[in-house]
Amino acid sequence: MSARVTPIETASVALLGLGSNLGDRWEHLRAAVRALEAHGAVLAVSNVYATAPVGLEEQPDFLNAALLLRTELAPEPLLQAMLAIERSQGRVREPLNSGQPRGGPRTLDLDLLLYSDTIVSTPRLTLPHPELHRRRFVLAPAAEIAPGWLHPTLGRTLMQWLDALEDADSNRIACVQRQGPLLAVPSGA
Fold first, then answer.
1. pLDDT per residue over 123-143, tens digit each?
2. Quick check: 87 pLDDT over 60?
């Protein structure tokens, strides 16, 4: 009698934020989803939300979404892949010491928000994303596809963080409006 061998799960699930406020915003987001499929299995994509800019307010409104990706890439290589996808969509990241304001207009912005229950703090990457629990434009799409995901350092689910946000300033409910699905739903789904 032989023992049954169960394969070890080597993939992790990452929660990504997607945003665009220049050019064909919908197409930039769709292109990002297609490109991310090369780095793992896309498990879910939220609806798209039209959102007011935060920080630098003199710029076009954003379209934002969230995506769950099962990937075998570790966090740093996944971040590098995400930066390459941004560049492929025309994103130019200015160096921090360039004098350019942070948070300006961009064709594509991909943020690694959560990576399973991993905690990382390096000069290039902080996980969980430090602003995740403070921003409605991130939490609304993220909580739509992963409402029960427990923040690994703060001990609340994404839906609990969203419900706890005050309806004020850049987190006003009116600043984050659902626009509809990013991807067509397959027939029969």
1. 999 999 999 999 999 999 999
2. yes
Q: d(Cα 37, Cα 12) in Å, to the nearest integer?
A: 14
Q: What is the pLDDT of residues 17-32, one digit of tens each?
A: 999 999 999 999 999 9
Query: Where in the sequence is the domain holding 82, given as residue range(s)?
Result: 12-91+103-181
Distance CA 70, CA 15 (A): 9
Tell me, letter by letter, the H, E, C secondary structure of the chain: CCCCCCCCCCCEEEEEEEEECCCCHHHHHHHHHHHHHHHCEEEEECEEEEECCCCCCCCCCEEEEEEEEEECCCHHHHHHHHHHHHHHCCCCCCCCCCCCCCCCCCCCEEEEEEECCCCEECCCCEECCCCHHHCHHHHHHHHHHCCCCECCCCCCEHHHHHHHCCCCHHHCHHHEEEEEECCCCCCCC
**Is residue 33, in this structure, part of any structural domain at all?**
yes
Residues taking part in catalysis: 91, 106, 109, 111
First-to-final CA distance of the chain:
42
Q: Residue 41 is part of a domain; what is its CATH number?
A: 3.30.70.560
pTM above 0.85, yes or no: yes
Q: Which two tokens stand for residue 121?
A: 């703090």
